[in-house]
Write a structure and sequence with these properties.
Length: about 350
Amino acid sequence: MFFRTWENAMALSMAIRGVVALNNPNENFVLADCGIGDVPGHPDWSTSRQVMYYKGAVWTDEAMSATNRPDMVKEVPWDGSYPWRPATISVPMPNGDKFVIQVTKPNTADGSTIAGGMTTTYDPYLTPCYPWHKKFVHQLPNGQWCSSAFVCNHQSGPLSQSKITVTVSTNKDSATLDGHVSVDDVFNKISFQGTTLQACEESTISIPGTGCTLTAACHGGVAGLTAAMLKSLKDLARSGDAGIFTQTTVTDQRWNPCKSGRDTCIGGWDRYERAVTKVAQSLSVYVADQNGNDKGQLNYKISCSAAKSCEGCNTAKFASAVLGLFPGVGSMLGGVAKVAVVGVCSASGC
């Protein structure tokens, strides 16, 4: 049989993978059962068995609350027996590739234990398959839902979520803008062009009524990424816990040439409350894939006459706000964002 010496073949294959480049190390193959419960009187039966191919991650988050759409789906022809069994089956995919599959341990519990393997036309080395039973992985055009039975990939277990690293950094230097300025007044000035690269127009932009300017740089490696980073930046600014955008008042003073004096003017200083908006003077966002390749960048710097008030920021609250608002950037690349908060509250410039 194809996998008669399957364990030895797998060990050899894994050794070879150490020196031979894979076609796509992030791909996933799902062996699925569809229409479970649709057969009257047989709640455990399925109406079809499907092979689903994903170029990247299957699940969009670690909680497995949602899945990406498969890049290819193919029904396994019924030969009279359940296909995920110790027998070799061949499945021709829509693009002409052929997947050869055998599950040698069909009753293995879910987890990291290898329960079978497969090869493809473009990758002759064995790809391990792991038992992984999760519902609602994909809905077929006929409305029936498919549940995963096994997941095959190049990882050490069934879960293979591309980790997108989002690094957000700022410091405790804040630019003080005159008046109460909105988040959109500042960050809507950042514009970009193009549907693929989406590079920012790197020019100095005046923030109306403040005497300050903003300079931004950005690019996105996939369509929509730059817009997603900018949206996350504005959401972060609106977050009170982030502390990078605050409307407040400050006590100021101005010279009064006739503050006192009966017959002559004697000058003096009057104290008064002035509305201001304090914005993190600089902030950087960098996005990298699981191999460390640059996928996107967005950063800005604000310059004005009072750009360094050097007020302390709450590191914990800023990190919490970033972690809550930037993971969505990872989904633009078909993976799960791993957010790193770097350089928070550094004393740069103070």
